[in-house]
From TrEMBL:
GO terms for cellular component: cytosol. Keywords: DNA-binding, Transcription, Transcription regulation. Pfam families: HTH_3, Peptidase_M78, ScfRs. GO terms for molecular function: DNA binding; DNA-binding transcription factor activity. It comes from Aurantiacibacter gangjinensis. This is XRE family transcriptional regulator. The lineage of its organism: Bacteria, Pseudomonadati, Pseudomonadota, Alphaproteobacteria, Sphingomonadales. Belongs to the short-chain fatty acyl-CoA assimilation regulator (ScfR) family.
Length: 466
């Protein structure tokens, strides 16, 4: 202990009170002045090694009792909280943080609780802003949020549907096999139809003629998926209803969206059976294009399926999935990982989910870092919907599949990111306190802007104190 200055004020005060002593009583016991006791309790004087020994022998306590067993943990939590860009313009030395954790544990805990509450309110605000941003479609936004919450709470993994689909996949491994099964089991004739009949649709069940039409303009992977989806509707209704019954929905729209999501889940599981797909993913190191080629599905379908590999005991890498259009509107979120970015992210222009529009259909890998210091590997690429003929309207969207950087070594994309500095991104500009961001579209909440009277900072909104 020699050579180390210890300030133990709060704990010394607690010891004195636990013993039922006044400062004068303790001063008399230790043969020092009451004013010196007061100074030590206010951390204006250190507790020397000699004083520690006096305390131990006088009150028959272990010196270790005066040490805070949680000080190291508290210090680490404080260090993590203070890395938030909210505090970027405040110079706090690591030793000061240790002193706060050791000497003022109550204040440290108060700061940590405030920071946690601040983070929770940020996420809650992001959810409210996301819903209110739909204009007069508030009820639709609520239904979407309900469905997303249902899937996220179950990590987008439904083993009973995987097992059912895998059993069927052995014999329904092609469009023609599914077509024959639907005809035999349900008396429905599956036909491929041109757009004159489909009028822009992808699948149509003509109930009166007992026919299922699938759009000719769809690629082979799209036709297989539509046939599988029809099978889910025809044969998996009870199983899907039983799973949906586990949820509590405030709207029928929310329940309907969950039914649709589970039907699509079963269809994807038929095309990409769980065990085979997870084994293939590990063997190919989660190369999405290679996986899509192996299972004869689209890039988006393979990426979508990767979010579902969270079966207990047989987990794959936990991913979340996001799909946006050029305007930044999020049309799909799937979270098999439980990440805040999957629930509320998508607005930061520095994320490669937006940058890949400049290089259509090329896969881009990026290491990103959130304001709390968490890092993720993001794999992004554009995908196309619509089209299929001259003059047909097409929509170009971007999809991103992301996972914690802790799994980078399991991904083929991690090899190119090993020595790359992460790109700092945020949930949204209003909630991101990173200073001097050239891409910022709005100042963060709760920060005062620095007037540009004497110096132009070169960033849209300068709020840091230099």
């Amino acid at each position: 202990m020699a050579g180390k200055t210890l300030y133990l004020g709060p704990r010394l005060k607690k010891l004195r009170r636990d013993l039922g002593l006044t400062q004068a009583n303790m001063a008399s016991d230790l043969d020092i002045s009451a004013s010196y006791i007061a100074l030590m309790e206010r951390n204006q004087r250190p507790v020397t090694a000699e004083m520690l020994l006096k305390l131990a022998t006088t009150y028959r306590i272990d010196v270790a009792d005066l040490a805070d067993a949680n000080a190291d943990e508290t210090s680490a939590r404080l260090q993590s909280a203070l890395r938030d860009p909210l505090f970027a313009d405040i110079d706090i030395a690591p030793l000061d943080v240790e002193d706060i954790a050791t000497s003022y544990p109550g204040m440290a805990e108060a700061l940590l609780r405030l920071h946690t509450a601040f983070g929770e309110e940020q996420l809650a605000l992001a959810a409210r802003r996301e819903q209110s941003g739909t204009g007069n479609g508030e009820s639709a936004a609520d239904a979407v949020a309900e469905a997303r919450a249902f899937l996220a709470a179950r990590r987008n993994c439904f083993p009973s549907l995987d097992d059912s689909a895998a059993e069927q996949a052995r014999r329904l491994d092609s469009f023609e096999a599914m077509r024959a099964h639907i005809a035999e089991a349900h008396g429905l004739d599956v036909q491929v139809a041109d757009d004159g009949l489909m009028r822009g649709g992808t699948r149509w069940h003509d109930y009166h003629r007992r026919r299922i039409y699938v759009a000719e303009r769809l690629p082979a992977s799209g036709r297989r998926f539509q046939a599988a989806l029809q099978l889910a509707i025809l044969e998996q209704g009870d199983a899907i209803a039983a799973i949906a019954q586990q949820g509590r929905f405030a709207s029928e729209d929310g329940r309907a969206l969950v039914h649709r999501a589970l039907q699509s889940y079963w269809a994807a599981a038929l095309l990409m059976p769980y065990h085979a797909f997870r084994k293939g993913a590990e063997a190919l190191r989660y190369d999405i294009e290679a996986l899509a080629a192996r299972f004869d599905v689209s890039f988006e379908q393979a990426a979508h399926r990767l979010t579902t590999l969270q079966r207990p005991g047989e987990e794959g890498v936990p991913f979340f999935f996001l799909r946006v259009d050029r305007a930044g509107n999020v049309s799909k979120r799937l979270d098999g990982a439980g990440f805040p970015l999957a629930r509320h992210g998508g607005a930061c222009p520095l994320w490669n989910i937006h940058e890949v529009f400049a290089k259509p259909f090329q896969v881009d890998a990026q290491m990103i870092e959130m304001p709390d210091g968490e890092r993720y590997v993001s794999i992004a690429r554009t995908v196309r919907a619509g089209g299929g003929g001259f003059g047909e309207r097409r929509v170009l969207r971007s999809v991103a599949l992301a996972c914690s950087a802790l799994h980078a070594g399991r991904l083929v994309y991690g090899d190119v990111l090993a020595d790359v500095e992460p790109v700092p991104i945020g949930v949204s500009c209003r909630l991101c306190h990173r200073p001097r961001c050239i891409a910022r579209s709005a100042p963060p909440m709760g920060r005062e802007l620095v007037p540009a009277r004497f110096r132009e900072s070169g960033v849209p909104f300068d709020f840091s104190v230099n």
